[in-house]
Amino acid sequence: MNQDERKALGGPRTPKDRVTIYEVAQRAGVSIATVSHAMNRPEKVNAATRDRVLEAVDALGFTPKASAVSLARKGVGRIGVLAAFSAYPSYLTRLTGVMDACRDQAIDVVVYDEEPQQAGTSPWLSSLPATGRLDGLLVMGATIEGRTAERLLERGLPTVLVDAFHPSFTSVTMDDELGGYLLGQHLVGRGYQTFGFVTPAPPSRDFVSPGEHRLEGLTRAIREAGLPTSKSSWLITEDDFQGGLDAAADLLELDELPEVIVANHDALAAGVLGGLRARHVAVPDDVAIAGYDGLELARVVGLTTVRQPFAETGQIAAQLLLEQLSAKKARPVQHIKLSPELVPGDTA
């Protein structure tokens, strides 16, 4: 039976008549260049076209030729680490934990840095399972949903999530509600009664962000203290230092400045702090400020914050992934939740 006959019958293929990129392109109705971009530079392809290409890849069971060669590696594994490293320094700290866990292992670590995405829209996360170039994947801060989750499971790519949750994948998360609650208890214990929250817009109605969990814990502490949450002020801004600077100007436009301002993370809090001080507002005498994360920035400016064990999180996640790679049979899914620590500072 020749190649065409085997294709027509849908029978198994030999290495010589494996699925080609031309077949994927024909099925998806695109050029082979578009197929290549969808697999190797997914951010360059619009979402609808990328999905069409990946559906063809899945249907045909396509594995790029170069990836097929890489799968034959002997003695050296390769894991990918996907996160918005440039946007959030905390992921770089987690990456140090990953590198520590892999330092004495025969493992190559490949880093994929991408822009912050709304839930379920990560181009790399959609494409990486189909490329065949990785033995395992660590996903930090991106939610796995729908077809992406199915593709990971179908391809059998060992995957561990960090700072995100899915019931089908092992995960390492932080108890952010506890962190918010600890911060709230500290603030009400200091006598603060009116609160301002500076946060980014929620990424998706279907996705509860870590920041939203923190606010749940914080407002629970406020309610338990008998204080009305109705007097709290909410300010939506960009989720970075500049967003904090902008928020400081907006806060001063309120009819009454809250006694304490809680920012989504330390860089945002530092922006608020700098913006208020530039306008001659004394911190904490006129208004107190608290952040979250416990990065070195918090120590530099003396922020009251909540410290997350970022490096430990990355190290544990990498160890769990390495265990999956070395196991002779599938390991059960594990969900590990770590506890943060309150760090009182000079600002609240």
UniProtKB/TrEMBL annotation:
Asked if DNA-binding is a keyword of the record, the answer is yes
Instruction: Say which domain of life the source belongs to.
Output: Bacteria
Listed A to Z, the keywords are:
DNA-binding, Transcription, Transcription regulation
Pinpoint the HTH lacI-type domain residues: 19-73
- Check the record and name the SMART domains matching this protein: HTH_LACI
Annotated GO MF terms: DNA-binding transcription factor activity; transcription cis-regulatory region binding
The record's section on Pfam families has: LacI (PF00356), Peripla_BP_3 (PF13377)
Which named protein is this? Answer: LacI family DNA-binding transcriptional regulator
Tell me what organism the protein belongs to: Flexivirga aerilata
